């Protein structure tokens, strides 16, 4: 017979950066946590931090476990187990260990890692009958996990109803009136007011797909800011601290975002070893764990253009080609460096701010369009107004801008129209139309100065492609028909009717297929 008063509410497995902080966040919200990691030092470190943060007189809120059997016997039924381990094989490794430890059919295992969404779909089916495999993608990094992340749960709806109170408690919160994050980062004093940044996304895989696209947008947004940094350095001769000041100013306006804020902070940081700007001492080779790549691959597979996200992935790949770049920088010619000063410089900075805003709209449009396409393919009922809402706080791409996206989807819902692309929302099309000349000037300046702007530039090409009623794909279809008899449709006959011109025999005759 279990002594229910001693049983704990939830288990956390994997106490790295995210798991440790999720455990503390859950404990702050008055749930009793059982914690396990393969590395017992991590369990002890968590217990020490919990002890240190615990209010005087408060009972211990986290119990360390030596193995998974001990964890299972410590938890109330149905058990709720949160996995925070690296994506891929470790997830199945822990699941198998839980089966070996005696997990039961109605226990709920929640994968909070950045798993590939198709793995999540497969796992739900694979573990059915042994336990309920649920997923909840998390964004917000270390501090988000600790004080309020954005949470994207998906899978079994009954499992969601069961965990919902915990999820709503630990999620980031937004002020319902302003749409701005309620930021309080105090151990033992969680934010309980406001709208929680979590909503049920849909069936298995949907949450991880949405998180994957979130990360694709994150890659693009980060790269856009990096391109602005390089442009300001190379064309205006600005120091890191000067660029930081520009970014801080931009962060007060329409470009307000967490990524802009932290970029300004990174640029202002002095290297403790050399007293130089730290950014100048960081090697320019970017890492990646795969979610941006998955987003780009998904867009290619499904045939929805997300060029700015793909270019952001390529930009990271290009950054790793350091040796080749060093060699080629010595032999490939480029223009002489621009040295913008005075009013020219002021104008350029204004143009660049507008260019960044336009490119940001384009990259979010790509991400949302991609989610819409996959939702149609998989039969998911994704609520984009809600998805934009839960990204307003807690997550890495949190920004004022997300409120405008949510409103654009809400307006479309009210009007009963489908917003198939964010560029169609009046608020965004108006902003783009007003600022597009500045966007072009900034890209032109970059091209003339020889500064690479793969994301700002590809976003502009995306925008211009959508402005084109006719693209040169007519010629492309002609080429395909010429060399491979691949056929084409005509502008003056019904859609789907195929034609082929007999190119190799003159006089060339047209055949309706
Ligand atoms: N860091 C971030 O900003 C974010 C990360 N994520 C995702 O969250 C997940 C966790 O990330 P993060 O916390 O950064 O990673 P860490 O590497 O910091 O932590 C992972 C933890 O899992 C432990 N672990 C690995 N295998 C097992 C196992 N079989 N059983 C028990 N514990 C195990 C590791 O132990 P050991 O080190 O001893 O091997 C480590 O303590 C990843 O999927 C990541 O992509 C999601 C959002 C943000
Ligand atoms: O999911 C995240 C935030 O939303 C992580 O920070 C993500 O792991 C970062 O990805 P990468 O290491 O590829 O830059």
Structure, briefly:
It contains 20 helices and 11 strands. The chain is of the alpha/beta class.
Could you walk me through the main structural features you see in this protein, from its secondary elements to its overall organization?
Strand 4 (80-83), helix 4 and strand 5 form a beta-alpha-beta unit. It is globular and about 85 Å long. The chain has 20 helices and eleven strands. The strands form three sheets. A seven-stranded mixed β-sheet has the order 3-2-1-4-5-6-7, with helices on both faces. It has a two-stranded antiparallel sheet with strand order 8-9. The chain has 513 residues and is an alpha/beta fold. The termini are far apart. The mean pLDDT is 96. Helix 1 (17-28) runs parallel beside helix 6 (141-147), helix 12 (291-302) crosses helix 13 and helix 15 crosses helix 18 (426-449). Bound molecules: NADPH dihydro-nicotinamide-adenine-dinucleotide phosphate and ribulose-5-phosphate. NADPH dihydro-nicotinamide-adenine-dinucleotide phosphate binds at residues 13-19, 37-39, 42, 84-87, 90, 93-94, 113-114, 138-139, 141, 289. Residues 207-504 form the 6-phosphogluconate dehydrogenase C-terminal domain. It comes from Shewanella algidipiscicola. It holds the Pfam family NAD_binding_2. Belongs to the 6-phosphogluconate dehydrogenase family.
